[in-house]
C-alpha cells in the first residue's frame, strides 16, 4: 500500500531519543528496513549527543528518517569537522512522496555552518540519489598484505566481554583518548558508533592488549586475518600486533582501514560492488590517494 499526501504539510522532528514512543517507532523502522535496532545501545548510555535523528513523524509514527553523526575526520593529516549522514530510510507505505529528499535538504541546511565536510556511504541502489545534493562519489580501496611468520600467538591479549559493564566502560575510556588509526583517512570522536558495533556486531571479536592499553578488533576467518580497528592513545606497533593475533593458518592480512604504516608493503585494489563513499565539502579535498574509511566508523 502506498500512501499519498501533501508533502508540504509534514513536520520534521529532531533529536527525540529520550521520547520513548518516537524512539521505539524509529527502532521499528530501522529494524524493518535494515534489520538493526538501537534500543540496547540507548539503554547502555552510548547513544550520545553526536548521533541525531531527523524524522518525518505522522500520527506518532516515524515514517522517514535521516540521521547525522558529528565527528572529526582526518584527511592527509589535516583535521576536518565532519557530519556523517546515515540511517536514511522511509517506510515502504510512504515512499514516493519526496520525504528523504526533504530530510536531506533539511540536514544540509541545518549543519552547513557546523562542519567542513558532509559524507556518507550508500549502496548501489541509491548511487543516483546523492549527487543531486552536491555529493561526489569516491571508490575506496581494499588493503591487504601477506602475513609474516608468527612469533607470538595471543600473548597479552584478553577477550573483552561486551556483556560485562566494567569491560564496556574500559573500552569507552580508551576510546575517549584514542589516536586515529590512520592519518591519511581517519576518524576521531566516534565513541558512540564504535560502541554500537561493540554491542551489536563485533561483540565476540574485541580484545584488550594489556601492555599497550589498546583495544583490538579482529577476526581470523580461514587463512585471512581481518583487522578492523586498533584503538589506543598511543601509536601501536602494528608489526608486533600482527604477530600477536595471527595464527598458524594465517596467509593474508585484510585491513578494514587505511594502513599508513604498511603503505609500501600492501596490495591495493579498488573495491568492486558494495557501499560507495560520497563526500560534499566546502573546499577542494584531495582524495586522489587510495583510502579505506575505517569500517567501525560507518554510521
Automatic annotation (TrEMBL):
N-acetyltransferase domain mapped to chain residues: 11-150
InterPro entries: Acyl_CoA_acyltransferase, GNAT_dom
Pfam families (UniProt xref): Acetyltransf_9 (PF13527)
Keyword Transferase part of the UniProt annotation: yes
Keyword Zinc attached: no
Keywords: Transferase
Molecular-function GO term, any one: acyltransferase activity, transferring groups other than amino-acyl groups
UniProt-recorded name of the protein: Acetyltransferase (GNAT) family protein
Organism field: Paenibacillus cellulosilyticus
